[in-house]
């Protein structure tokens, strides 16, 4: 599904003329015409992540009516965690929105992980960014987030700002995040922002930072049909498993990642290991 917001100005959070304001009002009215609902978890204070230990650390899951941030470097498990939360939301018969700044979502893979695509509004911002590049894509993503939070009716709105390499992150003025925070405050909607580095600042009620620690491989040999072993990530340990660099061994297959989730901001603090298996 392509974005329905590409005809609006690139800076939606400052409605600088009457035409832009009228166009934004039309989009909001069109969204309100749908009969969105939050049914299964309507009375719940939290949205489960699908990871039992993480829900326990968070005292129930992702809090509703809040602006949440997930950060971490490449291959740290951010997207896997995000998709897990999305799957839990659609399993609860909620409507969700995925604002895709850099066209990263694989819908077939998302469906395989349990996300009900019939309950997903996919807003793609990257392909039509044009000459503006990453800045234009981020601006369109913020525009979509502004419209959807004002429209209401979504159990979860995910804003994926994971810029592709070599870009490290994105810069967004703090007042924009506070505007989005106020839009979801007191509602049943959770706003979940995913980025490679922290960008939401003090507007975030909860910040989860993911750190990659290990990689897992399946190894075939003459003595065993399928032996799994672990390889420590060089960025963490400074070295490789003494067996061999497994990606260079014929027949080895990548199995997944082990990361650690650090709760940097919230009512409680702590960290737990999380596993992403492929």
Could you explain the architecture of this structure?
By secondary structure, the chain is an alpha/beta fold. The protein has seven helices and eleven strands. The strands form two sheets. Strands 3, 4, 5, 6, 7, 8, 9, 10 and 11 form a nine-stranded mixed β-sheet that branches. Helix 5 packs parallel to helix 6. 40% of the residues are buried.
Number of helices: 7
Helix content: 25-40%
Average pLDDT, all residues: 75
Number of strands: 11
**Low-confidence regions:** 1-16, 30-39, 221-249
* Share in β-strands: 25-35%
Question: What integer value in Å does the Rg equal?
Answer: 20 Å
Terminal-residue CA separation: 26 Å
Largest sheet: 9 strands, mixed
Could you spell the SSE succession in H and E letters? HEHEEHEHEHEHEEEHEE
Question: Which shape, going by the Cα principal axes?
Answer: globular
The computed structural class is alpha/beta
Helices and strands in order:
Blueprint: H1 18-32, E1 46-47, H2 52-57, E2 62-63, E3 67-72, H3 78-91, E4 96-100, H4 107-112, E5 120-124, H5 133-151, E6 156-160, H6 174-184, E7 190-195, E8 206-219, E9 227-232, H7 234-237, E10 253-265, E11 270-277
Parallel strand pairs: 3-7, 3-8, 4-5, 4-6, 6-7
Antiparallel strand pairs: 1-2, 8-9, 8-10, 10-11
Helix pairs in contact: 1-5, 5-6
Outline:
By secondary structure, the chain is of the alpha/beta class.
């Amino acid at each position: 599904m392509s974005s329905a917001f590409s005809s609006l100005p690139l800076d939606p959070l400052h409605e600088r003329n009457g035409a832009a304001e009228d166009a934004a009002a039309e989009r909001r009215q069109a969204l309100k015409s749908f009969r969105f609902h939050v049914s299964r978890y309507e009375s719940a204070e939290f949205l489960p992540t699908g990871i039992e230990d993480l829900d326990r650390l968070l005292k129930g899951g992702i809090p509703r009516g809040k602006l949440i941030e997930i950060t971490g470097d490449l291959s740290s498990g951010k997207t896997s965690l995000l998709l897990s939360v999305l799957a839990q939301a659609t399993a609860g018969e909620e409507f969700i929105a995925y604002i895709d700044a850099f066209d990263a979502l694989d819908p077939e893979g998302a469906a395989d992980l349990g996300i009900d695509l019939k309950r997903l509004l996919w807003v793609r911002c990257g392909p039509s960014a044009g000459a503006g590049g990453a800045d234009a894509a981020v601006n369109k993503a913020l525009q979509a987030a502004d419209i959807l939070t004002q429209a209401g009716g979504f159990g979860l709105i995910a804003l994926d700002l994971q810029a592709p390499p070599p870009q490290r992150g994105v810069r967004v003025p703090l007042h924009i995040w506070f505007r989005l925070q106020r839009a979801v405050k007191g509602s049943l909607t959770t706003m979940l922002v995913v980025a490679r580095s922290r960008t939401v600042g003090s507007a975030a009620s909860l910040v989860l930072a993911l750190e990659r620690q290990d990689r897992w491989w399946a190894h075939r040999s003459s003595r065993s049909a399928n032996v799994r072993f672990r390889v420590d990530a060089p960025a963490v340990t400074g070295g490789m498993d003494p067996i061999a660099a497994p990606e260079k061994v014929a027949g080895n297959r990548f199995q997944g990642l082990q990361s650690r989730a650090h709760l940097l901001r919230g009512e409680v603090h702590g960290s737990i290991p999380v596993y992403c298996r492929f």
